[in-house]
Each structure stands twice: as structure tokens, then as C-alpha cells.
Amino acid sequence: MTRLGDSVQRAGELLAQDLSSDRTVEQLLTETGSRRYLDLSDLPAAEQARLIGARAVELLPSVEKLAERIDERRAQGKGLRIKLGIDPTAADVHLGHAVPVIVLSRFQRMGHEVTLIIGDFTAKIGDPSGRTAERPPLTDEDIARNLAGYRDQVRPFFDFEKVRFAYNSQWLSGFTLPQLLGLLSQVPVSALLQRDDFRNRLSEGSGLTMSELLYPVAQALDSVELDCDVELGGVDQLLNLQMGRRVMEVRGQQPQLVVTMPLVEGTDGSGAKMSKSKGNYVGLSSSPDEVFGKIMSIPDRLMVPYLRAWTEWTDEEITQVTARLEARSLHPMDLKKILAGEVVTALHGVEAAMAARAGFVAQFSKKSFADVGTLPVVELSEHGAEGIAAVLSKVLEFTPSASAARRVAKQNGLRLVIEKGEEKQRAVVLAESEALRPLAEVVREAVAAQPEGTADAVYLKAGRKIAQIRGL
């Protein structure tokens, strides 16, 4: 059995146990967290390719072709040449940026040669992928500052001591006009204009510069320079990465394989991707308590995508816990605490993760709100059809407006607290999008998700204010 196989067997035994137990969770986090440093070079080529493909949105041409390329390089006594391009556009990094780096780390631990391309040349053009307007170019000082911040924050997910750094200005700045024209004569204009974002901007009369139009070609030349086997990127980079395949063929090289990573949805559950501008992100420089709390605020439906994106769990292990959720032998809140612990473990270690877990439980799990005294009451028969934000503002007067109620949710302050029997309370953190839904719908879904499917009492909590919900 491989080293990974041994780890999967141990984790599988833990995942079958009581996952509300601190002791079990600590053992699980220790086991799965240690995989970030596990040597995967003993895996057969087909298994390596399968593990990469399982985390990709697309692997082109196919998982089988990746396995063939691995075997081909092994026969030459080499590993694959893997490339990830970085345009250092900001100093602060969030978990969304870590997704391709985590897969890159797996390639690294499989024994392949990893190169990070620092786009100091292309960053001055600005990657136009998905943008509705031209991006302001960066200066050399911007690039150096942002790169330093990127390395410091991504370090928990990646071994920077075993990677090659290359700056694409080294070959792109010397590329002559005759060379460029010769290359472009073999690249159809349709290959550059098939992008939806370009067509949309042109149809709307927005600016589209020639430098943006040629950005994919410049990125493709990075792959030519490295004679790259595999290039990683976000799913929004697909056309850029495919241009790398085209240009490598033009240059007489074996075209690279393409691996695209998902753009992870933000913590607010709105459907928008994680981004600083929307405030729905988890910063890599955040404290353990902040990271844990942010993850606990996500809608339940994001738990599986987040487990796939940021943990070293296998698909089989994720299937194991989702089956337990469906059988109601595992509570969603317990799984969410494990997910939060996994992320904190990656950034700060198991000890910090268990401390953040204990802090969260101490803050949000009390014996009973029945001991608080007289509480305001919301009858579902009267107000169940109203949105939660409206109930908080109009019925309970907990917030001055519905928009203020949504802000409370955005700050992780909106919760349903469910009590059943002698158990401690279970808090269901509601995302901002949940604040717009009818109160009765949200309450009944939350209660149905409990192991027993019933509740003795349910409370609505907004910040420090609490109301009891009746008429379940």
C-alpha cells in the first residue's frame, strides 16, 4: 500500500466515528493535515493523474493523456514540467488564490518540476480575463511588493524552497517585432476574439486595447520558453491556456496539457466568486478565530466544494461524510466545524485549529436560552412568510432596517439556535442571502437538517438580541 493509501485507511476509520468529539476531530486534523507534506512520488502515473483530475474543472486533452505524459517523462528519468503563472496584482491574498497552488503542491510532491512564472512583463499589460474594462498597469515597485506579500501568505500551502522562479520579462522584453509578426501570422484572429468578455466589451462600446488582445499570446510564449508539459490556471484562464497549446504546436513543440481550477464561491452564499471587493473572502493572513468564524458562516451547500478546494481529503472520504449527512448520522454543524478546522490547520496548525474550535463553541453554544428570561416571540403562523430581514426590522425592531439586518448577517451575526432534549444548542449561521428568504422556510430546513429532524425550541439571534420562534 502507498503512503497515501495508509493515510486514507486511518482517516476512513476516524470518519466513521463520532465527529462531534474533540478527540476524534483532533486526530482527524492531524492525519489529513500531515498529507500536505506527504511524498506522493510512489503513486502510479494513473493514480497521480486521477488525483489531479479529481480537483480540476477541466483537464485537457484528458486524464489518460496526463498519465501517458507522466509515464513518458519517467521513462526519460524526469518529471513533468509544470507551470503556474502569477500576475502579482495585489499584496493581500485570500483562500480563492490558494486553490491552484494546492494542486501545484500535489504535483510538486509527486516528483514533478514546478516553475512559478512571475508575470512582471505581462502584469504591465494586465490580464483581461473576465474584466469589463482595461486594468491599470502595474509598476516594478507594485510587482515586487505584491510578490513579497503573495509568497508570505501562500507559504502554508506550498514549499517555495523546491520551486523554480522565472520572470517572463527575461524572454518577452527581447521579443522583436519581426518575431511577433511571424508568430501572429499563424494565429487566427478568431482564436483571439472568441472570448465572451472581449465580444461583450466590443458590443458595449467599451475599450479593448491591442495589448489586451495579445495578452494570451504573450502568456503562451511563457509555455514555449519552458517547453511546458502542464499549465495550471483558473477556469477563467481556459482560453489563455489553450493558446499556449496552439503556440507550442506552431513552434514545433509537444503541446502542454491544461488543468483548470474552479473559481470558488464566496462565503456569503450569493453565488459570486470569492473576492475582496465583495467582502466574501477568507484572508490568508487572518487570525485562527477569524478564519474559523468565517468558514462557520457559510451555507451548508458550500461545505463539499470547500472540502474539495482546500483540504487533502480524497473523493472517497468526501463521499463517506456526505453519505453520513444524508443518513443523519452526522450533523452538518459538526462537519462544518471540521472543515473550519482543516483550513485553520493548514494556515496555523492543529493546536490553533482546536483552540479556535473551542473558542467558537464557548461563544455560541450555551445550555438553554430558556434560562435567559422573557424573550420576544415570533409566531410563524403570522410572520413565517416574511423575509428574515423584514422580521428583524419590522416585527422585532432588532435592526433599524432590512439592509441593516443583512449587514448583521454579512458580519456572521445572524443565527438560528436550535435546542433538542438534553443536548447543547446547535447554532446555524445564516448567510446574507438567507436573510432575504421567508423565515418559515429557513427555520423548517434548519430543523429538518438536525439528526432527529425535530426541535424543542428554536431561537432567532441577531448580534446579542434573541427572539423565540413558535409554531414549528
Strand order across the largest sheet: 1-6-5-2-3-4
| Overall shape | globular
In angstroms, what is the radius of gyration?
Answer: 25 Å
Poorly predicted runs: 130-134
Largest sheet: 6 strands, mixed
Distance between the termini: 52 Å
Question: What percent of residues are in strands?
Answer: 5-15%
Q: Tell me which oligomeric state these chains represent.
A: single chain
- What is the share of helical residues? 40-55%
How many strand units? 11
Number of helices: 22
Output mean pLDDT. 86
Structural class: alpha/beta
Question: Can you walk through the features of this model?
Answer:
The protein has helices at residues 3-15, 22-33, 45-54, 63-75, 95-109, 140-154, 169-172, 177-184, 189-193, 196-203, 210-213, 215-226, 238-250, 288-296, 303-310, 315-326, 332-348, 350-364, 380-383, 388-395, 402-410, 439-448; strands at 58-60, 81-86, 113-118, 164-167, 230-234, 257-261, 377-379, 414-419, 426-429, 457-462, 465-470. The longest helix has 17 residues, at 332-348. The strands form two sheets. The chain has a six-stranded mixed sheet, with helices on both faces. It has 472 residues and is α/β, with parallel strands linked by helices. It has 22 helices and eleven strands. 47% of the residues lie in helices and 11% in strands. Mean pLDDT is 86; it is low at 130-134. Helix 20 (388-395) packs across helix 21 (402-410).
